[in-house]
Amino acid sequence: MTRAYFTAATCAISLCVPLSGKTPSKKFSLGRIQMLYTIRKYSNLIPNNKALTIWNKPLGFSSKFNKMKLTKEESLMIQLTIRVRSILIGLLLSDGYLQKRNDWNPRIGLKQSIINFPFLWSTFREISYLCSGTIMLSSNILRDKLFNAVTIQTRQLACIIPLFNLFYVENGNLWKKVIKPELLFYMDYMVLAYWIMGDGSKRNEDVTLYTDGFTLQEVVLLINILIIKFNINPTIHKEKKAFRIYINKIDLNKIRPHITPYFVEHFLYKIT
Fold first, then answer.
1. What is the b/e burial string over 79-94, where b = at least 16 CB atoms within 10 angstroms of the residue's CB?
2. Cβ burial, residue 236 (10 Å; 0-12/13-18/19+)
3. 141 pairs with which residues across the strands?
4. Segment 220-246 mean pLDDT
5. Residues 73 and 155 in one domain
6. In terms of Cα–Cα distance, which of 271, 191, 178, 198 is closest to 230?
């Protein structure tokens, strides 16, 4: 049986622009042109870096970054480091998504508001060796308002299959994201840091993790994993029909020294 997983469209009109490509002929407002110019200044900083990297440090930009199509052998040579694997798991626990079409290898994507560009750019610098292009800019018209966002997507790679199997199960002819007990073996402070940056918010002196897309049983499983791995005592709060995880001030103080080194400055306010 042929199965596919696709992300759902959320708007009537969408315009995607590769930052390294040409802008479409459509007329842009002055503010939009300035935004494109500012983001492209970042994208022009990409070096052709083939230097060795230090253990457990960012890999930098891959020499294959600007090669649109890889051979099968080149594609199979690309692997996830422990650091990058933790980043991707943290993203998948929050706003990251996985796409898989038929018998193709899966790919991972992340879409954020233009306001959070520093976070997306920092993430892109970490995982750029998995990508074939730079950040994409998109404009969505929703309820007669223009929303600007930025997106990154990896190539369709065999090394992502273990993460797909970790998070997805068959759901008819589609795939559904779930939480599995095996996540326990992959949870670390870097995963938690990217989870909070991607889908956490600060309330008073506590942190809320928005786990709206998961069932109550899955949220309980996530809490058990946090208890076992980090020796903290998060709680569940129900807001409308959603179950969310709360990390109190005492537990936040306990984990803060361990997750702060992985935080992008743009999101430090969430844990300080």
1. ebbebbbbbbbbbbbb
2. middle
3. 13, 146
4. 95
5. yes
6. 191
Q: CA-CA distance, 248 to 51, in Å (whole number)? A: 42
Report d(CA 51, CA 31) in Å as an integer: 38
User: pTM of whole model > 0.90?
Assistant: no
What does the mean pLDDT of the chain come to? Answer: 81
- What mean pLDDT is predicted for residues 259-266? 96
Among 117, 194, 104, 119, smallest CA distance to 148 is for 117
Of the two residues 142 and 224, the one the predictor is more confident about is 224
Instruction: Name beta bridge partners: 98.
Output: 108
Specify whether the CB–CB gap between 155 and 132 falls below 8 A. Answer: yes
For the chain, the domain total comes to: 2
Tell me the longest C-alpha to C-alpha distance in the chain: 55
Residue 135 lies in a domain: yes
Residue type, 217: Q
Q: Is residue 32 part of a domain?
A: yes
Query: Same domain for 216 and 110?
Result: no
Identify the CA nearest to 256 among candidates 239, 238, 269: 269
Q: CA-CA distance, 98 to 14, in Å (whole number)?
A: 20
Does residue 144 form part of some domain?
yes
CA distance 173 to 6: 11
Which tokens belong to 151?
Answer: 């997106």
Q: What is the pLDDT of residues 180-190, one digit of tens each?
A: 999 999 999 99
Cα 132-133-134 angle, rounded to 5 deg? 145
Q: What is the mean pLDDT of residues 46-72?
A: 60
Where in the sequence is the domain holding 35, given as residue range(s)? 4-177
**CA 52 – CA 49 distance, rounded (Å):** 9
Whose structure tokens read 């599995």?
180
